[in-house]
Amino acid sequence: MIGADAHVVSIVEDLARQIAERHAVKEIRIPLLERLELYQRSSGETSDVVEKQMYTFADRDEAETLLALRPEGTPGVVRAYIEAGLDRSDPEQRFYYSGPMFRRERPQKGRFRQFHQFGVEIFGRADAACDAELLVMIDEFRRKLDLYLEFQVNSLGDEQCRPAYRAALLDWGREHLSELCEDCHQRLERNPLRLLDCKTDAKLAASAPKSLDYLCDPCASHFHTVERLLVEADVPYVVNPRLVRGLDYYTRTTFEVVSNAVGSQSAVVAGGRYDGLVEALGGAAVAGTGFAMGVERLALALDLSRASSRHEPDVALIALGEGALGTAMRLAAKLRRFDLRVEMLSPERGLKALMRRADKLGARYAIIIGDNELARGVAQVRDLRATTAPIKQREVSLDELPDVIVRIGAP
Ligand code: HAM
Predict the structure, then answer these.
(1) Looking at the chain, which residues constitute the CATH 3.40.50.800 domain(s)?
(2) I need a surface site. Which of 106, 126, 305, 411 has the fewest CB within 10 A?
């Protein structure tokens, strides 16, 4: 990385550090080399990272200890936390780290064998507010850079409810055995959750059981609180019930933050809760939750968004007829107060032409108000872009509109 490219990476790292520090997160420095076993026990034997992507070698000591270049930061932070005795003496801790990670992957746009992560790990907080705070941190970062990113959240449940979900996925996989790809045949018995990661047949995965339908009451309530707090904090998000993550330690909340500017490697930030990990690595039963940003991917998203200097509206507002015009004007002003970019389209053209115009502008949503909607105090909201939006068009009451748009994901 040379010159301007290196500089964009520094901008991303510096800003992430500033925001983490504003959330009272302290720095931790962790080694590049760890025992291979650490990753096998945490990232998971069946994860792609451990199965295929690690750079490992035997040390020249007598035991020929197997070492690995770190593919991610979380296990090293947990190990350091336990070794310092903090899990017992002072369990509530918040750390950030920044530095290179190594994965033997096929390089492509946004995917490198050496890349940088900026990560945050919080220990000793089992509450949903802490998960929401992580997403708020990422949202602050996104807003500062004026980046459009989609926040996708899900819950994978815990040791109480996950077994039932696993069993349901196993049944579903066996039922669809003949349609599954070769990799999925292996995933099925070893870790059926990975079936949802299938890149070959994403359509088939859409019919798989959803973890949210299997949550026990405490996990469901945890997830609802995360959702409620995201709405309170104006963090736009979508629920993605297929989000399973590629590492094994996750419990309850998981999330990925996706950019449409990075090509197929679209996750720029990812993370979630890992309540059993400290204990699994020999520490006390302490909760954990965190995320890691892919610094180069964010730099790429930033570069591209700067280059195209985003001016597309979040909302193209369509008033059909004189009657709806005043209401539409009021609504536009209200939406702008929520930091949304709103363009009111000419009331003098027909719906078809206006929808074409909204598409051409690259608007994220079209909001349509005609006489019929006006009489009932509602508007039609049509999603023009989202890849994972749960809806294409739906009717929303005018009172709820700003909240709904912010909630289902506009910048
Ligand atoms: P991960 O999803 O494996 O999670 O990686 C996090 C981020 O690192 C990805 O979203 C992506 O932006 C970036 N990344 C991963 N692999 C590459 C690559 N080959 N080239 C460029 N960027 C890459 C973790 O690593 C977890 N430790 C996150 C976490 C922290 N969960 C809880 N705490």
Answers:
(1) 312-407
(2) 106
Atom of ligand 1 nearest to the CA of 298: 12
Local confidence band at 410 (pLDDT 50, 70, 90 cut-offs): very low
- Count of alpha carbons within 13 angstroms of residue 311, beta-carbon side: 5
φ, ψ (nearest 5 deg) of residue 365: -130, 145
Nearest residue (by CA) to ligand 1, atom 21, is 111
> What class is the 4-161+215-306 domain?
alpha beta
- 266-303 burial by CB neighbour count: b if 16+ within 10 A, else e? bbbbbbbbbbbbbeebebeebbbbbbbbbbbbbbbbbe
Atom of ligand 1 nearest to the CA of 119: 30
Does 286 score more than 70 pLDDT?
yes
pLDDT digits (tens, 9 = 90+) for 241-252: 989 888 889 999
Domain over 312-407 is classified CATH 3.40.50.800: yes
Q: Which protein residues touch ligand 1 with a CB less than 6 Å away?
A: 72-74, 103, 105, 111-112, 115, 117, 119, 121, 246-247, 267-272, 274, 290-292, 294, 296-297
What are the pLDDT digits (tens) for 67-107? Answer: 999 999 999 999 999 999 999 999 999 999 999 999 999 99
What are the residue ranges of CATH 3.30.930.10 in the chain? Answer: 4-161+215-306
Distance from C-alpha of 4 to C-alpha of 303, rounded to nearest angstrom = 10
**Nearest to residue 281, comparing CAs of 255, 248, 324?**
248
Give the residue whose CA is nearest to atom 17 of ligand 1.
Answer: 111
Tell me, in angstroms, the distance from the centre of ligand 1 to residue 292's CA.
6
Closest Cα to atom 7 of ligand 1: 294
pLDDT band at 33 (very low <50, low <70, confident <90, very high): very high
- For 148-187, the pLDDT digits (tens) are 899 999 999 999 999 999 999 999 989 988 888 888 888 8
